[in-house]
């Protein structure tokens, strides 16, 4: 499913829809170039989950955890890591939700993952004309609530 995002507010809104609908254990892999809007989308997801704390890029902290919303949000940015360093982090802990409370895991630069989760939502953000963006959303081995398409159609 492709969604046209005219401005940053539209990117936030797509995130809000996801944040309201996704279930615990959902993993979102955000594949996009620098500046394409990955962190902006996660800010929307946080808003949709009811997180009021400001969501900032985890480029230096690697993982930011927000626990005040409907579900915990785990926001990762793997940009600065090599695949072997990522492997050592045992990130599956986050999506298996065994040692941490199951929540939504949003990963920037998932290209660095040595292996992918069994199921995830792929969100590719690319540049359109006039500084717009296009989001290409593909569920792998998972389903998004039927409300998702309906809400996107009514908003975008
Ligand atoms: N749909 C959009 N149209 C125009 N600008 C956008 C859109 N979505 C996000 N932006 C802007 O792009 C810039 C970079 O966004 P950011 O989320 O930090 O990107 P990334 O995390 O992918 O590097 C921000 O200034 C943000 O407001
Ligand atoms: Mg970012």
Automatic annotation (TrEMBL):
One of its GO terms (molecular function) is metal ion binding. One of its GO terms (cellular component) is cytoplasm. It is found in: Cytoplasm. Pfam families: TsaE (PF02367). Keywords: ATP-binding, Cytoplasm, Magnesium, Metal-binding, Nucleotide-binding, tRNA processing. InterPro entries: P-loop_NTPase, T6A_TsaE. The keyword Chaperone does not apply. GO terms for biological process: tRNA threonylcarbamoyladenosine modification. Belongs to the TsaE family. This is tRNA threonylcarbamoyladenosine biosynthesis protein TsaE. It comes from Cylindrospermum stagnale PCC 7417.
